Each structure stands twice: as structure tokens, then as C-alpha cells.
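Data card: per-record layout.
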Amino acid sequence: MNHRVTDEAMVQALYRQYGAPLMAFAVRLTGGDRRWAEDVVQETLVRAWRNLHDLRTDSGSLMPWLATVARRVVIDDRRRSGSRPLDTVEDIADRAEPVAAEDERLLREIIVTDAMMSLSPAHRQVLTETFLLDRSLQEAAEIIGVPVGTVKSRVYYAMRALRVALEERGVTLP
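The structure for this 174-residue chain is written out next.
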């Protein structure tokens, strides 16, 4: 098989799996500049392509690696363009901490979404109804069309599956 075709197929698979969450992360990193975010995503995927054969992940998800690369691309772009005005050290420190915390929160959100997508449709549905939409077990049962006992069982097994999926991605739940 042609090595180039295999690489292109892998890049397409990377884009299908990580394109949307990576774009959301890049939009946040670029302060809402969608065109710049598209460039960041493209450069991030080019770097992933260059490193395809070396990419290994213990977590089962490349999103943390891709997010780190995207963050570096944005930093490199800012340095190159000189778009960051000279500030005092105190001003930079005051702004850097909340931005880093927000980036970390967004990355965790992306990882949780990625983990949720690995669940079965029934498990995803029951967690969406009960946790994300804050519905009671009875309300969820009525909406899904199954007995309350089935909802309880699905929530239990869905949470176990989600915990495993998150641990595979390097996130542990309390």
C-alpha cells in the first residue's frame, strides 16, 4: 500500500475525530478570531502529520497533545507578529493565570466530550438527560421511554464507562 495514501487517510481520520473540538479550543486561544483559529488548526494538524509515526498516547486520546501544539502555535504566532504590547511583568502575571485556568477548563471540557462520545448511544443519552439536562430519573425514563429501573441501571453503568474513558484520557474523577 502506498505510504502517502495511508498518511493522508490518517490525517483525515484525525481531522474527523478532533477537528471540531480542536477548532473550539483554537477559537478560544485566538480570542475569537476564527480565521486565525483555522490557521492554528491547520498548522496543528500539519505538525501531527509530520509526527504521525511517533505519536503515542497512553490516554487513548490525542486531544491533550493537539491542544498543547495548538497553544504553542498561537504563542509562536504572537511572538512572530509582535502583536502583544509591552506590558509590565505584573500585568502579564495578572492576566496569564486566569487565561491558563480557562484554557485548562476548556481542555477538560473537550476531553470529557471526547470521552462521552466513546460511550454507547444509550449511555450517552441517559447521562445527557440526567446530568446535563438535570432531569429526574422519572423524567428521563418518560423521555427515553424505558422504566425508571432501567434508567438507574444505565446511569450506573454509564458512569462506570465514563470513569474508565476519562482515566484512559488521563483525567480522574473524585
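Known properties of this structure: DSSP finds seven helices and no strands in the chain. The chain has two domains: 1-115, 118-174.

See the next section for split statistics.
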